[in-house]
Amino acid sequence: MQTTLPFGTALNAESTNATNKNRFTSYDRSTRTGLDYAVNRSYDSKQGRFTQVDPIGMGASSLFAPQTLNLYTYCGNDPINHTDPSGLFWGFLKSLFKWVIVAIAVIVAVLTIIAAPVTIAGILGEISAAANAASQIANAAGFKKIGAIFGLIAAVTGFGSIIKGKISFQHFLEGSAQQKAFDSGVWFATLGGVGAVSNFAQTKAKKKSEKKKEEGLGTLFCYDHKTKVLFKSGNLLPEDTKNAIIEAGRKEHLLTGNPLPNAIDNGPTNDLFWIAENESEGIVNKRSNNPRSTARGLFQLLKPNYGVNPNGEDSFGNGVEEAQGGIRYIRSRYRTTERAVAFWKANCHY
């Protein structure tokens, strides 16, 4: 039997069968590295922490439990009272917490229905409690949209019950035990419904924001324009790329007789340099780092816009033609490079 200190440091002198590979929390210990295999990551008993972050990421953390914010810790630095055989301790607790909430919601729903008076307010309260329980079950099972729908029903009927039944704190204090149970259940269900709808809306807004950035960013240098982001200067482009952009500007002027406004003088040419560096680092035929994006070339044109290149998709690999495509795109959408840069800085894409 292997005897260890709380965080797994072996005490061989007090152990029996110390050659057994199963060590701390039944982990297999490597004789070469000294690390313990914890299924989803490796654990270092000498440091008392995992060598990788929790695979669940920040989803395993909570501001209410500060120890969870360090994704390398073993059981929140409490190995006396907890074990983590899979390396997913906090994720397990968070999952467990969801189902505890479900159990509470179901119990509250049952008590609310039992205590509900035979009135319109009582019927609305029963619907609210049942809908909230359904919402919590759906959310815990991963059906967020269904959870939000039931949450909306719970919130609307709950507020209806509160208004119709004139449920207030004073009403709660002066009521019977049955009335107190009903009032509490209605408030719990109403707030639970509001929370479900709010969480769903926030999640949708976050996904929409991320999708918008992923679709247009290409190499995704700017992750959040609301934070302080150091944009690239445009001065670090390879000379060949700069020359290609200048030549493209001249060609577009000759072809159309209408150059991109001020595209050939220093100011807007620098704007083109700036866009190219922030979009592709000035790399000809650059493909997006995002595998789901079709962004490509010096100006990271998306597939629907490949046609603005002189030779469509065949232009990729030719710096001058890629730059011509970028100039045409900017001309058609923004008219000036200044507007294109301003839009990019505000939205992290153009």
Write the layout of secondary structure elements.
Blueprint: E1 28-29, E2 36-37, E3 42-44, E4 49-50, H1 89-115, H2 120-140, H3 144-164, H4 169-174, H5 177-217, H6 239-256, H7 266-280, H8 319-333, H9 337-347
Antiparallel strand pairs: 1-2, 2-3, 3-4
Structure, explained:
The chain has three domains: 12-87, no CATH class; 93-213; 239-347. Helix content is 50%, strand content 3%. The chain contains nine helices and four strands; from the N terminus they run E-E-E-E-H-H-H-H-H-H-H-H-H. The chain has a four-stranded antiparallel sheet with strand order 1-2-3-4, with no helix packed on it. Strand 1 (28-29) and strand 2 form a beta hairpin. The longest helix is centred in the middle third of the chain and has 41 residues, at 177-217. The model is unreliable at 213-230 and 261-266 (pLDDT under 50).
Write a compact overview of the structure shown:
This protein is mainly α. The chain folds into 3 domains: 12-87, no CATH class; 93-213; 239-347.
Cα shape: flat
Largest sheet: 4 strands, antiparallel
Number of strands: 4
What is the quaternary state of this protein? Answer: single chain
Order of helices and strands: EEEEHHHHHHHHH
Class by SSE composition: mainly alpha
> Residue share in helices?
40-55%
How would you state the average pLDDT, rounded? 75
Measured by DSSP, the beta-strand proportion falls in under 5%
User: Helical stretch count?
Assistant: 9
Give the count of structural domains: 3
**Whole-number radius of gyration?**
30 Å
| Uncertain stretches | 213-230, 261-266
Q: Walk across the major sheet and give the strand order.
A: 1-2-3-4
Ends distance: 64 Å
